[in-house]
Write a structure and sequence with these properties.
mainly alpha, Amino acid/polyamine transporter I, 18 helices, about 70% helix, transmembrane, Transporter YcgH, amino-acid transport
Length: about 450
């Protein structure tokens, strides 16, 4: 806590090689936000979505670079929340922790909705909220009866996700090369005019940035895991390799997608990769791809539920959440039941929202989750500026990162359909900061009164 130099517990148990962390990072980051959310991005800006993802990759690299440098300089279990507290005081650590908790609850809601939408591929008449309730219940059961082998299963399913994209890339190349019959028009659809490349102009491109950044969400988890490296100085290299791999996978798959179908064909009701292969006689592909993404997406959501449950325990340990959430049930695998109950309440809220707003729920939740995530990333850069006393190229990179993040957040105002997500995230942030200031004032009063009592 504070600025005291205590040895980090995590620093003692580093056993990961840099390349292992890179691969884990790729698996953690690829999720339903990419498999479904990228479809909204394409609908919003057309073929220029490829450049949205390149800009997001640059912004993400700047955030990771700042976080990795802070981790190498002073490895801590609290990671970005600890650095925010170190840089700006208790209120910043509190805000950062609760903002991250809220963003993860929304991300789980987004994943839950995405899984329900993808499952409707087979069960078209099933209400969205019913499917969401089924997946939420299964995730809670996994957490309650979690086995020691869960991490190994997570790693296998991370490979499944990556393999699904690689399968699409290979099949798309074969289709465009004429090795698979089925295209009704023939040839590759390359945009050759401004109107084709940016069908909704710069406003559409601006609004699409949030979906590109959302697909890179997860980088801060790698910041937490960087403390498990054998050599903490390898953190920047590990993150760089991970981002290069992710960018190649994302840009290549999206580039192929927008050349196979007109941008108007894509929507938030099905994966753009399944839609892109619609014109080809591959009856197995939609089923195999959809199935792989649902299994992998469910694993990501369950892992998020584990993470959110443990995060609240950490916040409680640090005095940033009620002590109730520290309690663990020893008779039940040492499970922090009160913390899990609050995360479950967040999932239930997502299901109710899906029931009330079935039409646009995925766009709203994804937008709000993306904004809260980017606010945390903004905090990471601001913390690094103060903690590391950045100079020269690092400082310039920090400013560029902040500009790109603010552009992405404000871009949600450019699109009427996703604007409610911006307002929802704004309300959450104002609420968190207001509570943070009140809690901080109480702590300061207590500290001021304690010498007088002695």
């Amino acid at each position: 806590m504070g600025n005291s130099k205590q040895p980090s517990k995590a620093a003692k148990k580093g056993n990961l090689a840099w390349w292992q962390l890179s691969l884990v990072g790729v698996g953690c980051t690829i999720g339903t936000g990419y498999f479904l959310g990228s479809g909204i991005g394409i609908k919003t800006t057309g073929p220029s979505i490829v450049f949205s993802f390149l800009i997001a990759a640059i912004g993400t690299y700047i955030v990771f670079h700042a976080l990795a440098k802070m981790t190498a300089d002073d490895p801590r279990e609290g990671s970005f929340c600890y650095y925010a507290k170190k840089a700006y005081g208790n209120w910043a650590g509190f805000s950062c922790g609760w903002n991250y908790w809220c963003s993860n609850i929304l991300i789980m809601g987004s994943q839950l909705t995405a899984l329900s939408i993808l499952t409707k591929f087979w069960f078209q008449n099933a209400p969205l909220w019913v499917m969401a309730a089924v997946y939420a219940s299964l995730a809670i059961i996994v957490v309650l009866f979690g086995t020691k082998g869960f991490d190994k299963v997570e790693n296998i399913l991370a490979v499944v996700k990556t393999a699904a994209i690689v399968m699409f890339i290979v099949l798309a190349f074969c289709a465009l090369s004429g090795w698979i019959n089925g295209r009704h028009g023939g040839g590759v659809r390359l945009p050759d005019t401004y109107g084709e490349f940016l069908p909704h102009g710069l406003m559409g491109f601006w609004a699409s940035l949030i979906y590109a950044f959302y697909a890179f969400g997860g980088i801060e988890v790698i910041g937490l895991m960087a403390m498990q490296l054998k050599n903490k100085d390898d953190a920047p290299k590990s993150g760089s390799i991970m981002l290069v791999l992710l960018t190649i996978i994302y840009v290549l798959s999206l580039g192929l997608t927008v050349t196979m179908e007109p941008y108007t064909a894509f929507n938030d009701k099905e994966s753009p990769f399944v839609k892109a292969m619609d014109d080809y006689h591959l009856t197995f592909f939609p089923h195999v791809f959809n199935g792989a993404i649902i299994i992998a997406g469910f694993s990501t959501m369950t892992a998020s539920l584990f993470g959110v449950t443990n995060l609240l325990v950490t916040l409680s340990d640090d005095g940033d959440a009620p002590k109730l959430f520290e309690k663990k049930i020893k008779k039940w695998k040492n499970l922090p039941l009160p913390s899990l109950a609050l995360a479950t309440a967040g999932l239930v809220l997502s299901i109710i929202t899906a029931l009330l707003l079935p039409g646009k729920i995925y766009e709203y939740i994804t937008t709000a989750a993306g904004i809260l995530l980017l606010m945390n990333w903004l905090f990471i850069i601001l913390s690094a500026m103060r903690v590391l006393k950045m100079k020269g190229s690092d400082k310039i990179m920090g400013y560029i990162g902040m500009v790109v993040l603010l552009l992405s957040i404000s871009g949600t105002l450019a699109e009427k359909e996703i604007r409610p997500g911006f307002y929802a995230s704004l309300i959450v942030m104002i609420f968190i900061i207001a509570i943070a200031i009140l809690v901080n004032r109480k702590k300061n009063r207590r500290q001021a009164d304690s010498p007088a009592l002695e």
